[in-house]
Amino acid sequence: MISGEIIVPIVNVIRLSNIEGATRIDSEYYSPQFVENRKILLDNSMRLGKYCFVTDGEHGSVDFQEQGIKYIIAENVKENYVDLDGIRYVSDEVDRRNKRASLQEEDVLLSIKGTVGLSSVVTLDMLPANLNRDVARLVPNQKYIDPYFLSIFLNSKYGRLQTLRESSGNVQQMITLGRIRELLIPILKNQKLYNIIVEYSLECISRSKSLYYDAQKLLLDELGLSDFNPKYELSYVSNLMNSVNEYRMDAEYFQPAYEELIEKIKNYKYGYKKLLNLSKDIKPNFNPLSFPNNTFNYVELSNIDSSLGIITDFTTLKGDEAPSRAKRILKHEDIIVSSIEGSLDKVAIVDKYSENSIASNGFFQLRPMGILPETLLIMFKTSILQMQLKKGCSGTILTAVPTNSLKKFIIPNVKEELQKDVTLLIQKSHKERNNAKTLFEIAKKGVEIAIEKDEATSENWMKEEIKKLGIEIKFKLGGPTGGL
């Protein structure tokens, strides 16, 4: 079985003496990889629960509201960061009722249901926030455990192998709080080193978001849409002939707010064009089952960071393991857009690292022709095309945008000079995000080297790798050891 980069043997042979008194007797729990991982950590580690408060979030149902306390669920917790795009809010009362899960800066989050074992640190910009039951809140005693080091370790090979081993469940994997408290954490002297690297990575992400916002603002200012806030009418009248011509009888389709947007685009000083005159609608006709032994990276909606328009992750699988909906093969600079109502903001540009990945046919796939990819990305991320997507949604059981709706979409005819300015900002934004991702990977690998070899070797390797990026980070060594 393959899970990301972790390969678990299909057949395991274990001695009966090794499982006497154990609470788990399933063979996978005793996979040699899991057993060896624990053996390595036992030499110089501590039990997480000894120096860390561990709890989870709200177990009951909650009512959501427009603003208030951010409500974090497992899908928000990514490797080394929290995706707040599309976050939902609860009341102060929910936060007071669930005080144990009311987050504080430098708490550590761990996904404990679904995709188990992803971890990130709570930063000030996330607060105030609370959790549901699918996320664990870890509050380390910082005399002994640095929170950034803890998160990096949990995301490393040695952390993920533990959480994968301790997970259980048939339909959906989960890990109990009791099991989390038993996780082994290595005792390292220079934990502060990882803290500094992660904090710099978070600064890169902040700069990335700022540049992305600047690109959006530049385009919307040019189009006079920065403050565009159309009023959604509760009641309105539409001509019957319009319904006949459009083959639509639902009232939402004729909401005047949509027409207000269309008029804005049509009145743009340089005119407008049909979306499909400037991009090609790629059909989902790739079949990975024709390549059963090939390895593919599979991209789903959950792998899209819609706040930056990038693909952040993927699932590695063989062609014969691909789901039936995996019908798209991605190419560099394609724009992929969710067609499913409720996730229309899941839009991303395909970078060179994601080329030849496969993706769900729940995406539209547009190949820019006559428009720069970054400009088209921003158009899909803003009201320019988001409102047209929303207008196009139809269906009862699964509401989605039909493919033929794309033929009706229009976009402003933006001059090339402005497109280049937008492109430059987006490219800078994505470079900062890639730097952050690389730094996270360096820190993660650094922890693994420290465990496998020693801290001096790890420190030297990390500094050399960071130097290759052209980044200068001032390191102050040391960190929580608590006399351990």
Automatic annotation (TrEMBL):
Superkingdom to which the source organism belongs: Archaea
Gene3D superfamilies named in the record: DNA methylase specificity domains
GO biological process: DNA restriction-modification system
Record SUPFAM superfamilies: DNA methylase specificity domain (SSF116734)
GO molecular function, one term: DNA binding
Keyword entries, A-Z: DNA-binding, Restriction system
InterPro entries the UniProt entry points to: Restrct_endonuc_typeI_TRD_sf, Type-I_RS_S_subunit
PANTHER family cross-referenced by the UniProt entry: TYPE I RESTRICTION ENZYME MJAVIII SPECIFICITY SUBUNIT, TYPE-1 RESTRICTION ENZYME ECOKI SPECIFICITY PROTEIN
Protein name: EcoKI restriction-modification system protein HsdS
Source organism of the structure: Candidatus Methanofastidiosum methylothiophilum
